[in-house]
Amino acid sequence: MTTFEFNSSLIGMKPNLQRFAMSLTSDRDTALDLVQDTYLKAITYKDKFVDFTNLKAWVFTIMKNTFINNYRRNIKENTIIDGTQDLYYLNQPYDKGSISPESSYAEAEILKAINSLDDEFRIPFQMHLDGYKYKEIADKLSLKIGTVKSRIFFTRQKLMLMLKDYVR
What residue numbers bound the domain in which 59 lies? Predict the structure, then answer.
């Protein structure tokens, strides 16, 4: 395929590429950027295209992969990495704001309900609330992981019945 034929075919795909980009991004400006990035990569890597194969599929694959890579890059950029010596930023307490009397009362009622449970249900549930993973709870309590999961599930069910006034 000559360069002229390649470029003509690429330009002819523009409406389809824009529709596909719009379906991926749901934002007009981002979609146009994605189309532009796709054109750039297709022209840059023209030598990788094998003649007599499906050019449209090749270009759409470039667009899809570019979208996925951009998405992953954005996720990584939004991840907070704390490089301080003592992990200062990660150990900052979460500010809950002002506590209303109603929320204090609700919290006390919930804690009272949790504390009223039998130890076999309360302890795994409390450990789960404290941030332990199922495996850690199972190891500490010498239980099977399935037992831990079911006890936490049933505890949630019991608490929802006990605290049905708080369920939305």
Answer: 3-77
